[in-house]
Amino acid sequence: MRALVLYDRAAGDAGALARTIAGGLPSGFQARALCLDDATGADLDDARLVVIGGAVRRLGPSPRMRAFFARTDRAAWRDRHVAVYATTADRRAGADAMATRMTVAWLRRYHVARPIPRTSFLLAAPDGPLDDAEPVRAASWALSLPIAAHLHQTVGG
User: Fold this and answer.
1) Other C-beta atoms within 10 Å of 138: how many?
2) In this structure, are strands 47-55 and 30-35 parallel, antiparallel, or unpaired?
3) How far apart are CA 55 and CA 11, in angstroms?
4) β-strand 30-35 against 2-7: which pairing, if any?
5) Could you tell me what percentage of the chain is helix, strand and coil, using 3-state DSSP and rounding each to the nearest 5?
6) Residue 114 and residue 86: Cα distance in Å, rounded?
7) Which pick of 23, 84, 91, 111 has the fewest CB atoms within 10 Å?
8) pLDDT band at 41 (very low <50, low <70, confident <90, very high)
9) Cα–Cα dist 133/147, whole Å
10) Average pLDDT, stretch 85-104?
């Protein structure tokens, strides 16, 4: 199965986090990380699992995510499992929940059939690297994504 991890380069240590997530997917996945600035709708073609992430914004997707959505055909998102993550330096519980929830709402407008669990990762500073424990947590989350996608599809998502 092919997977695509899309990231917003303005989101702290975004490239390293995206590569960690791509590398954390179970064996059998052909995964690659790609910056939203470089991605096109054609990159979605072979990906059954798409993971998309960026910096926290209370009103939803970052400007780069919105631009990517605008330049992709809504039909390209159909029948894909999509997971959303955010990066934030705000350590208050739930500070990121609105941003990821709003991104999922945007994806539903694009007729994503199967949005699956969302999460966030802490940055050590607003524009800084990931907090020390976050790479391990990111790899663990990535490992769980195929199971979440399967369960969501089986239960009737």
Assistant:
1) 24
2) unpaired
3) 5
4) parallel
5) 40, 25, 35
6) 18
7) 91
8) confident
9) 23
10) 70
Q: Which two tokens stand for residue 113?
A: 């059939």
**Whose structure tokens read 């380069």?**
9
Which tokens hold the place of 152? 């969501």
Tokens of 127: 């524009």
DSSP class of 17: H
Does the pLDDT at position 157 exceed 70?
no
Q: If you ran DSSP here, which 8-state letter would residue 123 be given?
A: B
Instruction: Please state, in angstroms and rounded to a whole number, the distance separating the CA atoms of residues 79 and 88.
Output: 29
Judged by phi (left if over 0) then psi (alpha if -120 to 50, else beta), residue 148 lies in alpha
Q: Does residue 151 carry a pLDDT above 60?
A: no
Which of 40, 49, 38, 36 is closest to 2 using CA atoms? 49
